[in-house]
Amino acid sequence: MFNYNPTFTFASYFTHNRLIIFKIPKDRILPGVKGLRGPFSCLNNARYGISWGAIGAAQACFDSAKEYSLSRIQFDHPIASYQLVQNKLSWMLREITKAQLLAYHLSQKKDAGNWIPEHISLAKMNNVDIALEIARVARDIHGANGILDEYPVMRHMANLESVKTYEGTHDIHNLILGRHITGIQSFTRHLS
Ligand SMILES: Cc1cc2nc3c(=O)[nH]c(=O)nc-3n(C[C@H](O)[C@H](O)[C@H](O)COP(=O)(O)OP(=O)(O)OC[C@H]3O[C@@H](n4cnc5c(N)ncnc54)[C@H](O)[C@@H]3O)c2cc1C
User: Fold this and answer.
1) Distance 144 CA to ligand 1 centre (A)
2) Which residue's CA lies nearest to atom 6 of ligand 1?
């Protein structure tokens, strides 16, 4: 087992494990599930949770950008009074609201028991994508101060870069949707 030092998600402990020959005792098998259905249902729930968590990160970046833009004076006025900055804040709020509605709609489908993996892919992919872009715009609004750990923005941006990859990369969720739309899988060159 090797340990790693990631550049983000510091709360997680990273290791490299190699399972060479192993047997799982029967009393450790998930009850009532066959094949990969059990593990995949865990992934569905984790991806669903991420679709909400990403919104929290986006909201924190928006809040910080709003507060900063109201207090930062440039050319004699708060930068929040300039139309270009308001356009950025307005776009952030619009995307956060859409992401909230998407996650809420997914939660209703989950509760009703009629969600499908493609719904979860769409929400995970979209909400992480917009949260990352919102973090970038928030960093821009903070100017050079945006790179300091005095503000939460770069921390969220770095975490979101990793969230884009784990629990199914952005590309793989796109391919899941692509297969759903067209009926053609393009994960591999093998057609089976
Ligand atoms: C912070 C963090 C925590 C993680 N936690 C866990 C965990 O708890 N358990 C666990 O099992 N794993 C975990 N992972 C691993 C994660 O699931 C993988 O990193 C992820 O699935 C991508 O695999 P990879 O790194 O091998 O990249 P690769 O599969 O090599 O992909 C590299 C790039 O190629 C793209 N790509 C790959 N295949 C295709 C294709 N067919 N078509 C188009 N593009 C493609 C990918 O989208 C990506 O952009 C974690 C990763 C991170 C960053």
Assistant:
1) 32
2) 166
Burial 65-100 (b: 16+ CB within 10 A, else e): bbebbeebeeeeeebbeeeebeebbeebeebbeebb
Task: Give the CATH number for residue 163.
Answer: 1.20.140.10
172 lines ligand 1 (CB under 6 A): yes
Residue 125 belongs to what domain range? 36-191
Residue 188 CA, ligand 1 centroid: distance in Å = 15
Instruction: Give the total number of structural domains in the chain.
Output: 1
Residue 167 appears among annotated catalytic residues:
yes
Tens-digit pLDDT profile for residues 75-114: 999 999 999 999 999 999 999 999 999 999 999 999 999 9
